[in-house]
Amino acid sequence: MPIYRFIFFSAKHRFAHASNLLPRFGSSKRIQSCGYTKSAKNNYYKKPTGHPVVNVETQASRSSGAYFIPPILLGFGGLLAFLHYNDERRAVKIGKDSYTGSDTAVAPIIGGPFTLVNSENQIVNEQDFLGNWVLLYFGYTSSPDIGPDQVRIMAKVIDTLEAKKNLKVLPVFVTIDPQRDTPAQLRAYLKEFDPRIVGLGGPVSAVRQMAQEYRVYFKKVEEEGDDYLVESSHSMYLIDPKMKVVRCFGVEYNAEQLSKEILKELKKHQVNA
């Protein structure tokens, strides 16, 4: 349930409870019905007849409740409207271009503009990749195990698609450790897997911004001076020629499985083009 709906129902329950409590704070009259009997000395004494005590609300208590509730309702209404607007702003409509076959689906925004430096020490941005299918991976050259495996899978996938299906997908590797991964380091590292892989790095702030755009988590762990590991989500993204993310893949895919899934997405694009 979206957060603004939860707040709405919670607020509704609290208002109902508050409205029941309002009469207690207004002024009221307590009226007790009594009977009288006459004594031998002609004195009268009061004897309760057993009728219940009745609370009579005054007009003031009712009117105070009427003026008290509307401002609170307006305040919570404004809060709910803001939360709804914020949720809508952080979502994007997915149409047929995203190959879902539905015009009403909603997904989080993934991807965005970036400006980085490639392994040839040239400044590049997202515009330089328009017109290409891109397989994007965030990693770092000092990764001991998962990183090299993922780059190896990436290299095998693009080779399979090009050799067997005559389909070209541009592999792009973005470092999440720009402090150590210089352009020269990226070039030497990626050449060991496939020289077609484009390496991107740059200032820490620029890399972090791009990682945030693509919802990539990473942080340094086990730091001992300049020696450390980088913990990350190890996600791989398939991006269409308009630089829109089509699909995200985790580490559970091997090269063969990933090739098949990417081929499915490319065929969907051909059908919907």
Automatic annotation (TrEMBL):
Alphabetical list of InterPro entries matching this protein: SCO1/SenC (IPR003782), Thioredoxin-like_sf (IPR036249)
CDD domains linked to this entry: SCO
SUPFAM superfamilies from the UniProt entry: Thioredoxin-like
A single GO cellular-component term on record: mitochondrion
BP GO terms, sorted: mitochondrial respiratory chain complex IV assembly
Pfam families per UniProt: SCO1-SenC (PF02630)
Protein family membership: Belongs to the SCO1/2 family.
UniProt-recorded name of the protein: Thioredoxin domain-containing protein
